[in-house]
């Protein structure tokens, strides 16, 4: 089995600490997202795992074997980048077969395998086309098939869908999920898109400033964020002073000056209730099945709430209307700067 063990890995560029003492245990066969803002060190960490970058300190083991000082080739890594580097002068079939032919695999085996991979990435019938005759999403699926052809121990993907439009991205997410279920290769992908990470990954590693902020399942990360950074990065949030009128019922530690409240956790009522705070509706924005309600509290503090279409109709909310709001739940962190 091919789990990955990362111990205290660090990498500096000049005086800039891109990866700062990161330790991670990645289970064999899992699908992991490295999620973080631009420049947080995600790609550098991925390149360290691949062996494309050398760590200043720390250790990386793949399948129990220390590979820290091993070459890229000996690590059994398949790498897919944002820009599909397919060979333009080769057909899709030839592109997928490339690595197998390099390994001098028997012709019949190559043929069978290429057909199976075309089917796996749902491109049957397109094997004789050239890359320029495919859409961006299809090309990226070819890149995946080509990488999987040589049966890597580990699949690394760096913003694999980054260059594609939202609809194609969504389709490719489903493809990758399906592919992973079929092939079950340990997979790590880099993304700055929290929705992509939530939808695809078994576990998410949230990275900020070269450090791991939290590792958890999508639900753990969303419902139980470990730090203010994770709370703000993974999903929308209102950041309010702990003294706000909306928190009359909650008691926060004196050290927590800021409280984080998800828009979904703001309850809107048309009549005052115990512990509800008066607010005025500034704007109502239709987002599809969900509706964003922008409100301001008496002290001028702005609060965003997300409610369902049904609730909007039931409450018959209108801009400038006076309503009452209260939190379902809110989170304060002990040492907010
Ligand atoms: N070869 C390099 N030389 C100098 N600085 C580098 C090098 N590679 C990365 N960096 C710097 O290290 C930091 C982390 O880069 P990295 O590419 O790992 O971030 P990232 O989280 O993947 O961001 P993005 O989503 O923008 O790709 C950045 O500030 C980047 O400029």
Automatic annotation (TrEMBL):
Looking at the keywords, is Repressor present? no
Instruction: Please report the stretch or stretches of sequence annotated as the ABC transporter domain.
Output: 4-234
UniProt-annotated location(s): Cell inner membrane
InterPro entries (UniProt xref): AAA+_ATPase, ABC_SmlMolc_Importer, ABC_transporter-like_ATP-bd, ABC_transporter-like_CS, Mo/tungstate-bd_C_term_dom, P-loop_NTPase, Sulph_transpt1, Transp-assoc_OB_typ1
Keyword Translocase annotated: yes
Regarding the membrane, this protein is recorded as: Peripheral membrane protein
Top-level EC class as recorded in UniProt: translocase
Keywords assigned by UniProt, alphabetized: ATP-binding, Nucleotide-binding, Sulfate transport, Translocase, Transport
Q: Which Pfam families match?
A: ABC_tran, TOBE
User: What EC number(s) has UniProt assigned to this enzyme?
Assistant: 7.6.2.9
- GO CC annotation: ATP-binding cassette (ABC) transporter complex
Q: Which SMART domains match?
A: AAA
Q: Name one GO molecular function term.
A: ABC-type quaternary ammonium compound transporting activity
Query: What is this protein called in UniProt?
Result: ABC-type quaternary amine transporter
- Upper taxonomic classification of the species? Bacteria, Bacillati, Cyanobacteriota, Cyanophyceae, Chroococcidiopsidales
């Amino acid at each position: 089995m091919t789990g990955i063990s990362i111990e205290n890995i660090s990498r500096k560029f000049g005086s800039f600490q891109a990866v700062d003492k990161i330790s991670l245990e990645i289970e064999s066969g899992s699908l992991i997202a490295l999620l973080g803002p631009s420049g947080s060190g995600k790609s550098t960490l991925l390149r360290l795992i691949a062996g494309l970058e050398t760590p200043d300190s720390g250790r990386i083991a793949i399948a129990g074997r220390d590979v820290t000082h091993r070459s890229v080739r000996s690590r059994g890594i398949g790498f897919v980048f944002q820009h599909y580097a397919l060979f333009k002068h080769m057909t899709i079939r030839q592109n997928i077969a490339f690595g197998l032919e390099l390994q001098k695999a028997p012709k019949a085996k190559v043929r069978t395998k290429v057909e199976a991979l075309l089917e796996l990435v749902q491109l049957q019938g397109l094997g004789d086309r050239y890359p320029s005759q495919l859409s961006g999403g299809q090309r990226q699926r070819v890149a995946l098939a080509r990488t999987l052809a040589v049966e890597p121990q580990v699949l690394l993907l760096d913003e694999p869908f980054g260059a594609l439009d939202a609809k194609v991205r969504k389709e490719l997410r489903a493809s990758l999920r399906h592919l992973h279920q079929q092939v079950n290769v340990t997979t790590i992908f880099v993304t700055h898109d929290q929705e992509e990470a939530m939808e695809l990954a078994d576990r998410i590693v949230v990275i900020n400033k070269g450090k791991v902020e939290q590792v958890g399942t999508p639900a753990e990360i969303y419902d139980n964020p470990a730090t203010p950074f994770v709370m703000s990065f993974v999903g929308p949030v209102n950041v309010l002073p702990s003294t706000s009128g909306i928190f009359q019922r909650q008691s926060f530690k004196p050290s927590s000056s800021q409280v984080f409240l998800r828009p979904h956790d703001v309850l809107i009522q048309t009549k005052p209730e115990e512990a509800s705070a008066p607010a005025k509706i500034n704007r109502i924005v239709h987002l599809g099945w969900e509706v964003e309600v922008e409100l301001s509290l008496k002290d001028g503090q702005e609060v965003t709430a997300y409610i369902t279409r049904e609730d909007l109709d039931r409450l018959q909310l209108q801009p400038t209307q006076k309503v009452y709001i209260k939190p379902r739940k809110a989170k304060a962190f002990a040492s907010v700067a």
